[in-house]
Amino acid sequence: MQHRPKTFLIGALACALGTSFLAPYLNPYYLDVILTVGINIVLAVSLNLVNGYTGQFSLGHAGFMAIGAYASAAFTLFAAPAIFPNANGWVTQAVFFLALLLGGGIAAAAGIVVGAPSLRLKGDYLAIVTLGFGEIIRVLLRNVDSLGGALGLNGIPFYTNLFWVAVWAILTIYVVLALVHSTFGRGFLAVRDDEVAAEAMGINTTRYKIIAFVVSAFFAGIAGGLYGHLKSSIDPKGFDFMRSIEIVVMVILGGMANTRGVILAAILLTLLPEVLRPVAEYRMVIYSLLLIILMLTRPQGLFSFRSNRPSVRTP
User: Fold this and answer.
1) Tens of pLDDT along 178-206?
2) What is the mean pLDDT of the chain?
């Protein structure tokens, strides 16, 4: 990908378009699982830009996901019918695309508002601030009656399909990898490897952290929009602290700054609860035990087999 990024992107998007034609032939349950896998890949890969490549620790990713979900759902439910009455066919797809961009844009704006002051902090302090942000978003949504309050929004159009999920998963992977492997992206790696040395060399570390935070928040908002238009119903409980933890676990289990590992971890942690459905009463106990065992035996990440993550120290 580093040598022919445009070829990779065009080929991957073409594959996504071809794969989308298989959707009508899939069992609805399997299709729902596949779409959820794709959404989780967007969430995990985007968070990996902050937690993995930039070396920060955010616990508020579900907050940005919630902003994207509610903003895009509000657009398709309230604004789109007035702007595009009797929309159908490609018009509904255009409306959905605009809704996703709106959700991602508002989430990115929230990333600037939160990131500008909080990313001057480091380590545990940053984690606490981002955790607080996620909880503030959840509580605010719970108390806004125009957005359904505690009951959330219902009747959201079912616009999410295999094509859109595949396209946004591919774009997220492409943007993150192209960014960190570019000349400009070396700044993210410098912040992670040695922030003090980077500042001594004249690198504006706060600027790089904010950029990583905003890009990550944008794609989290996109994932939220996809999620809302997949489930057709959203409420604040679906974006709580545990949702953020699930995404962080995907990044840690896959290996920090290891995009391929994070993708595999997102797939594994989405499929594992489904595989354990036959033992529903013990499913979460087994799931939790497996996570504990994996983190004890593979603290460097389940899919990190060699130290090949990008670094400013490598030629």
Assistant:
1) 898 888 888 888 888 887 888 888 888 88
2) 85
3-state DSSP of 232-281: CEECHHHHCHHHHHHHHHHHHHHCCCCHHHHHHHHHHHHHHHHHCHHHHH
Report how far residue 67's alpha carbon sits from residue 169's, in angstroms, rounded to the nearest whole number: 19
d(CA 169, CA 171): 6
Residue corresponding to tokens 């990115």: 108
- Kindly give, in sequence order, each residue whose CB lies less than 8 Å from that of residue 271, ignoring residues fewer than 6 positions away: 33, 37
* Residue (of 116, 303, 262) closest to 180 by Cα position: 262
Would you say 172 and 41 are in contact if contact means Cβ atoms under 8 Å apart? yes
Give tens-digit pLDDT for 81-111.
877 777 677 788 889 999 999 999 999 999 9
Neighbours of 272 (CB within 10 A): 14
Q: Answer for the pair 215, 179: CB distance below 8 angstroms, yes or no.
A: yes
Dmax over Cα atoms in the chain, in whole Å?
59
Mean pLDDT of 139-143: 92
Say how many C-beta atoms besides its own lie within 10 A of residue 268's C-beta.
18
Look at the alpha carbons of 84, 85, 91, 96 in this order and tell me if their dihedral is positive or negative. positive
Q: Quick one: what percent of the chain has pLDDT higher than 90?
A: 38
In Å, how far are 191, 193, 202, 289 from 197, measured between CA atoms? 8, 9, 9, 40
Q: Provide the token pair at 49.
A: 């830009």
Q: Could you give the CA distance from residue 12 to residue 176 in angstroms, rounded to a whole number?
A: 15
The model carries a pTM of: 0.89
CA–CA dist 220, 193 (Å, integer): 25
At 153, is the secondary structure helix, strand, or coil?
strand
Q: Which two tokens stand for residue 119?
A: 């990313």
Beta bridge partners of 234: 153
Task: Please choose, from the candidates 303, 192, 247, the residue with its C-alpha nearest in 3D space to the C-alpha of residue 44.
Answer: 247
